[in-house]
Amino acid sequence: MTNPLNNVFKGVGNNLTGAVLDIQPVTPHDTNYFESVAIGLYITVGGAVAFTTANDQERTVTVPDNFYLVCSCKRVKATGTAATGIHVLVS
Predict the structure, then answer these.
(1) What is the domain count for the chain?
(2) Fewer CB in 10 Å around end: N or C, the chain?
C-alpha cells in the first residue's frame, strides 16, 4: 500500500504526455480556449468532435460513445461538434 502522504506525481509537472490528474467538463465554444492545454478528451456520447490541437491545427473526428481521444488540444469548438458529455483530461 502506498503512503497516502506520498504524492507519486510530485515533480512530474504539467506536460502533454503525463498522467491524468483530473477531468473537467467542457462546454464547446468557437473562440474560448482552455486554461491550459489538455492531454486529451473523454467523450460520453459519441459523434463529431471539432477541436483545436496544441499546434493550432483544426481537426474534426467522429468517435463512439465512451471514447478517450488521445490528442493534446486547447479548445473544443461548438461548430462541428455533435458529441456530448465531453471532458478534458488534465495533467
Answers:
(1) 1
(2) N
Alpha-carbon distances of 59 from 11, 53, 71, 74, rounded to whole Å = 32, 7, 10, 12
Contact 89, 51 (CB under 8 A): no
Residues, the chain, total?
91
- How does the average pLDDT of the chain come out, rounded? 85
By C-alpha distance, which of 91, 88, 80 is closest to 42?
Answer: 88
The confidence band for 19, taking pLDDT boundaries of 50, 70 and 90, is confident
Q: Which domain holds residue 46?
A: 22-90
Average pLDDT over residues 58-62: 98
According to DSSP, the residues that pair with 73 across neighbouring strands are 38, 53
- Quickly list H helices, the chain: none
Q: How far is Cα 78 from Cα 35, in angstroms, rounded to an integer? A: 17
Residue 82 CA, chain-centre distance (Å), reads 16
Say which residue the cell 471539432 belongs to.
50
